[in-house]
Amino acid sequence: MTREEIANICKAMSDTNRLRIIEMLTSGEKCGCELLDELQVTQPTLSHHMKVLSDCGLVSSRKDGKWHHYTIRHECFAEYIEYIAAVSSHNEQNREMSCCCSK
Amino acid sequence: MTREEIANICKAMSDTNRLRIIEMLTSGEKCGCELLDELQVTQPTLSHHMKVLSDCGLVSSRKDGKWHHYTIRHECFAEYIEYIAAVSSHNEQNREMSCCCSK
DNA sequence: GTAATACATAGACATTTGTCAATATGTTTT
DNA sequence: AAAACATATTGACAAATGTCTATGTATTAC
């Protein structure tokens, strides 16, 4: 996963409505109309949000007749968590002592 | 951690320059001037980025003479990872069967 | 076949964001 | 005291973003 891909995932999750959508999908597959019921946005706005979430890989969709079912892509979240865990871990072996202003 | 706080953290990480800064801080405390050397941005832009990272809680700063040393706040990352892990975990017990369009 | 439902697309608009140049503030060095 | 260095603040601007209305496209129901 490149830094750009990580940034795109973060950008997708930087909106509270999209976070709510992700939270709703935690309990399992949902169709657009059900997500729409819970959010205070219009249908085109929801459609836009689902495209953002799909494009970055966090969510996958499955068409079934006139319904679109959305699901969390656990592999994507797993890779993302892996990155966050890596950058946030204190790794003493990686520690550099060469800061220009260290005494 | 509220949904707004999570969204702010995501927004802070949604920029590739700020991700690079976080990556640089992984190896330990860094001062602004050293971060500036590695990035292709002006000093005011770096100052802005550090403010964004500090305001959301991901980074803390320590003033030492004319230098400002920045550090990753592991507690904040830990809370964030906890949220991501929670929403991305498949929890069969939480699964709802009541989708309007489920057959 | 007509109406209703679920979703996407296009265009508009106000707000936010990343960036810079200019300038200010505080600290160290000479 | 003056110069150099590290950082913050202000104001400007182009680009990106979230939202809406209007409209289009499938699919199902009557």
Structural account:
The structure is a homodimer of 103-residue chains. Chain A has a single domain, classed as Winged helix-like DNA-binding domain superfamily/Winged helix DNA-binding domain (Arc Repressor Mutant, subunit A), CATH 1.10.10.10. Chain A has 5 helices and 3 strands; from the N terminus they run ααβααββα. Chain A is of the alpha+beta class. The model of chain A has no long low-confidence stretch (mean pLDDT 91). Helices cover 54% and strands 14% of the residues of chain A. Chain A binds a DNA duplex (30 and 30 nucleotides) through α3 and α4.
Estimated helix fraction of chain A:
40-55%
CATH domain topology of chain A: Arc Repressor Mutant, subunit A
What is the straight-line distance between the termini of chain A?
36 Å
Q: What is the chains' assembly state? A: homodimer
| H/E series of chain A | HHEHHEEH
Beta-strand content estimate of chain A: 5-15%
What is the β-strand count of chain A?
Answer: 3
Strand order of the largest sheet of chain A: 1-3-2
CATH architectural group of chain A: Orthogonal Bundle
Rg of chain A, nearest Å: 18 Å
What is the structural class of chain A? alpha+beta
Instruction: Name the biggest interface.
Output: A-B, 48 and 47 residues
- Main sheet specs of chain A: 3 strands, antiparallel
CATH homologous superfamily classification of chain A: Winged helix-like DNA-binding domain superfamily/Winged helix DNA-binding domain
CATH class of chain A: Mainly Alpha
Mean pLDDT figure of chain A: 91
Brief overview, please?
The structure is a homodimer of 103-residue chains. The first copy, chain A, is built from five helices and three strands; from the N terminus they run ααβααββα.
